[in-house]
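pls read this stuff:
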Amino acid sequence: MTSTLTHYAKAAQHLPMAWLTQYEFPAKDLVISSFQDALAELPAPSGYDDNVVRSALEFIVAGPDPRSGTFRAQAIQAAAKLHDHVTKLALVPRVKAPKVRKNSVLHGYAGGVFGESYGHRLVTKKGDGWIEYEYIDGPDQGVTRRYRGNIKDLAAYLVPDHHCGDDCMMGEG
């Protein structure tokens, strides 16, 4: 699966700023063709910034308004919007999804994954497709059990999470 950043970076490769800002501006037909190639690389827009970039590129392909400056100036400005968007996407912090590991604490009810029990669980062992856990509160405190299934599904129930009440102190330390 290709990321949004990759799509935009591939589009930007069709419009190198050094090429557009060189002393001899490239032929208009070649510039328009490069903008068409860049547009073909873009993913479906998913927000305001995506729409702004796409519109700027489409504006050049359709033939810019002469009242807004020279073709060269408008092409450079449109390409700059694309390059700025690539930079913005590249600098967005990547947040790794939490993972269930040994010593992770899982919220008590966990959406019913463990049945009707509400005791919080401490993951004591983890294997491929299974975990061993120990109840750390509630009526089953100290009891150890094994869960078999998709461990990634349990990540939504790591403490602290939205399922625990405001008074939940599990996972803090």
Notes: Strands lie at 105-106, 121-127, 130-135, 144-148. Helices lie at 4-13, 17-20, 28-41, 48-62, 71-90. Residues 9 and 70 are 26 Å apart (CA to CA).
